[in-house]
Amino acid sequence: MRLLLRFFRQLVTEYGISMVITLGTVVVTILLLVLSIFFPDVFAFVEKARLFEILVLTLLIEIVYHAAKPSENTSIRIFANDSEAQQTLSNLIDSGQIRSAEILATGLTARHLLIAKMANHGIPVKVLVQHPSAAIGKADADRLPTMIDKINDQIIDAKLKQNISIKYAVNSSTLRAVILYGRNEVPIAALVGWYTYQNSNTTIVAAPWPEIWALSTSAQGRLLIDYAQLQFNRQLNEAKDELT
Question: Which of 36, 140, 186, 223 supports an S-S bond with 43, CB 3.0-4.6 Å?
């Protein structure tokens, strides 16, 4: 039952409750038609209860609803800022769909709560942050030890700390990303944003810029996820294991 509820929740998350109702109605209609062919008693019950009329009416209502609804690509969303995106990330973690994650960032100030939550849910997370030698935003570099301590303080069990792997990129980053993986290390979603620089390249700014949320359910979503993975792996190949 728990697996069924999780599967239903995933369908609703990816396709919306209206589409799930439509698909469910189609499945029930086909099932009743097949059963009616082989079992006369089932046909008699369906005919007496007017189930076919009810199902057809439901389908017509759903068809009219989808026809009137503005078309939108639900696999790509734009969040006005990182705060809006955090709730979507948190809900996906709570759903149990995430098996592992990768995070690319210049620092940990905006991501330490997310990292700790993933670790506490038993989700292995690879974190790639800016090495102080390459950091344009010196404040982020100075805060790194403190942020790492804050992450450790939020871990509910010392054994869960092994879910976190932090490495330090030696190239200045312009991309920030959170990449989420499901079963068999298959990417299912990514949150992608960017950094800009001010004050003669001495200050880095990441908020409150918009961020792009991409699901792997469409070609456009997979394209953005692939790009985030490519950038993460390129930075990872040259990354250092220690701050020094």
Answer: 36
